[in-house]
Amino acid sequence: MSSRIVPPPAVPAVRPREDGRLADRIALSAATGRGARARTGDVRAWLAERRRAHVFHVERIPFAELGQWRFEPGSGNLVHRSGRFFTVEGMHVVESGGPFGDGPYREWQQPVVRQPEVGILGILAKEFDGVLHFLMQAKMEPGNANLLQLSPTVQATRSNYTRAHRGAEVQLVDHFLRPDPDRVVVDVLQSEQGSWFYRKTNRNMIVETAGDVPELDDFRWLTLGQIAELLHEDDMVNMNARTVLSCVPYGDTSPGALLSDAQLLSWFTGERSRRDVRAERIPLADVRGWKRGAEAIEHEDGRYFRVVAVSVRAGSREVVHWDQPLVEPVGLGVAAFLVREIGGVPHVLVHARAEGGFLDTVELAPTVQCTPGNYAHLPPADRPPFLDTVLNAPPSQVRYQAVLSEEGGRFLNARSRYLVVEAGDAPLEPPPAYIWAAPAQLRALTRHGHYLNVEARTLLACLNAAAARSRGGLLHGGGHR
Question: Options 3.40.50.12780, 3.90.79.40, 3.55.40.20, 3.40.309.10; which CATH number does 42-56+64-289+329-481 get?
Answer without folding.
Answer: 3.90.79.40
